[in-house]
């Protein structure tokens, strides 16, 4: 599986309440269940008008299919080439 970051334009998502975010997660999970094991959602970051989601997927097409089924746009999909963090330093 390859790792991807998906940018989703969702106006106003940053002011969504816990119930709305839980409902969105449920919608996403239902779409993921239809596509398993081709795509897995790791986690998402919510900002004012966007989410940034980390997914594992066989390919970009699996992510686009998830977007179609869930109704959440995949505005930009970028394959992750690597990962660094503070422990990467020497």
Features:
90 residues, 31% strand, 4-stranded antiparallel sheet, alpha+beta, 32% helix, Alpha-Beta Plaits
How would you portray this structure in words?
32% of the residues lie in helices and 31% in strands. The chain is of the alpha+beta class. It has one domain (2-83): ORF SCO4226, nickel-binding ferredoxin-like monomer (Alpha-Beta Plaits, 2-Layer Sandwich), CATH 3.30.70.3090. The chain has a four-stranded antiparallel β-sheet with strand order 2-3-1-4. Strand 2 and strand 3 (50-57) form a beta hairpin. The model has no long low-confidence stretch (mean pLDDT 97).
Please outline the helices and strands:
Elements: E1 2-9, H1 18-35, E2 39-46, E3 50-57, H2 60-70, E4 76-79
Antiparallel strand pairs: 1-3, 1-4, 2-3
Helix pairs in contact: 1-2
Counting structural domains, the number is 1
The CATH homology group name: ORF SCO4226, nickel-binding ferredoxin-like monomer
**Number of extended strands:** 4
CATH structural architecture: 2-Layer Sandwich
Q: What is the general shape?
A: globular
The biggest beta sheet is recorded as: 4 strands, antiparallel
The percentage of residues in β strands lies in: 25-35%
What would the CATH topology be? Alpha-Beta Plaits
Task: Evaluate the radius of gyration.
Answer: 14 Å
Number of helices: 2
Taking pLDDT < 50 over at least 5 consecutive residues as the criterion, the unreliable ranges are none
């Amino acid at each position: 599986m390859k790792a991807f970051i998906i940018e989703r334009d969702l106006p106003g998502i940053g002011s969504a309440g816990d119930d709305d975010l839980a409902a969105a997660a449920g919608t996403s999970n239902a779409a993921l269940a239809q596509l398993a094991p081709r795509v897995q959602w790791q986690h998402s970051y919510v900002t004012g008008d966007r989410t940034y989601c980390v997914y594992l997927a066989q390919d970009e097409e699996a992510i686009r299919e998830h977007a179609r089924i869930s109704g959440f746009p995949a505005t930009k999909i970028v394959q992750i080439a690597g990962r660094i963090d503070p422990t990467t330093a020497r």
